[in-house]
Amino acid sequence: MKLERQSALIVGGGRGIGAAIARKFASEGARIMIVDLPSMKAEAEEVARAIAAESDVEAVFYAADCTDAEQVNRMVNDAVRRFGGVDILVNSAGLRGPLVPVQDISEAEWDSVLAVNLKAAFLCCKAVLKVMIEQKRGSIVSISGTAGKEGMALRGSLVAAKWGLLGLTQTIAKEAGPCGVRANVVCPGGMDEPDLRVMYAERAKNLGMEFKELENKVLQDTPLRKYANHEEVAAAALFLASNDSSHTTGESLNVSGGRLMH
């Protein structure tokens, strides 16, 4: 098993990509703390129950708003008490934000998108790094996306946050690398899920396009002509979290079907 007896904090693990990563890591022997908002309690506890049924490892839910430093610090301290340390942090919390031109983004919308997609990752990294540096080991995997590699019309706040996540990750890689801590990013393309289609429908409308026109354009720009699924992203996260990537840090791994090649 690639993560046997290691401890993993999966922030945003109650659904979607985060839940798939939690289950994948557990299948490789990791002990899991699923971190999500209190409002996600039912979904996150269901993920924990599924892990218990599938894998003989510990999986617990921890309710926290990771845009709040005090709650993040308590969460990390609790993980250290429970597991004896923290081997892996996955930052998978996300908020898509408004689908409007930059001049129409409100200050409140901007602040909320940056808080969930960038500030939360910063606070989690800040708290976990203190533990990992003392341990002289650890792996941080953050989930970005195509918005972290290219500008996108009507996605200004998300693009800013996701580009910031790449810069933060590379900085951590340089600062913490000498202490045995690695930091990397996964950049998925469009995901095969209902939420994506809802977003595409709204974005197409605001761009003056039909939904199928936008979807066809995205898939035409994707050499594999398909969306990613959660398990494919989870497999990439496992590679970056495990010793399979022991000499890899500061990198962004695209899982975009070829849409991104840089």
Explained architecture:
The chain is an alpha/beta fold and 262 residues long. The chain has one domain: Rossmann fold. Helices cover 48% and strands 15% of the residues. The protein has 8 helices and 7 strands; from the N terminus they run βαβαβαβαβαβαααβ. A 7-stranded parallel sheet has the order 3-2-1-4-5-6-7, sandwiched between helices. The protein is globular, with a radius of gyration of 18 Å.
Task: Sum up the structure in keywords.
seven-stranded parallel β-sheet, Rossmann fold, 48% helix, globular, alpha/beta, 262 residues, single chain
Query: What spatial order of strands do you see in the largest sheet?
Result: 3-2-1-4-5-6-7
**N-end to C-end Cα span:** 31 Å
Q: For this structure, what is the CATH class?
A: Alpha Beta
Q: If helices are DSSP runs of H or I spanning 4 or more residues, what is the number of helices?
A: 8
Please mark out the parts with pLDDT under 50 across 5 or more consecutive residues, or reply none.
none
Radius of gyration in whole Å, from Cα? 18 Å
Mean pLDDT comes to 95
Shape: globular
CATH topology descriptor: Rossmann fold
Binned strand content:
5-15%
Total number of domains: 1
Order of helix and strand elements from N to C terminus = EHEHEHEHEHEHHHE
Largest sheet: 7 strands, parallel
CATH architecture grouping: 3-Layer(aba) Sandwich
* Helix fraction bin: 40-55%
Short description:
The protein has 262 residues and is of the alpha/beta class.
